[in-house]
Amino acid sequence: xxxxxxxxxxxxxxxxxxxxxxxxxxxxxxxxxxxxxxxxxxxxxxxxxxxxxxxxxxxxxxxxxxxxxxxxxxxxxxxxxxxxxxxxxxxxxxxxxxxxxxxxxxxxxxxxxxxxxxxxxxxxxxxxxx
Length: 130
Hints:
Layout lengths: L24 E3 L4 E6 L14 H16 L6 E10 L9 E11 L2 E10 L2 E12 L1
Antiparallel strand pairs: 1-2, 2-4, 3-6, 4-5, 5-6
């Protein structure tokens, strides 16, 4: 199956009016990505707490963007998320990821979501280069 970017990604697609339209910055020198975003109550699980699935989605996207500093086309093979603290809705989030190891077609990435410097969720991700 051929994959193509049609600007409708739920997380970052500018053409997806129902998506997050998150804007990730990429740092090719440091193999990193970064994004700042707040999620409203429509993305909550428990009252006033962002749903864990949304956090996993953002960690996944950050991991892909970090890998795109090296390889333009890649997909997630594994995502292991550790939730450390609840994430309140309507709170500015700092999302970042960094490629920590490269093996032929597999990248190992560490990603995190922080609020005011405190990590609330983190992930170890294996990303496969297409």
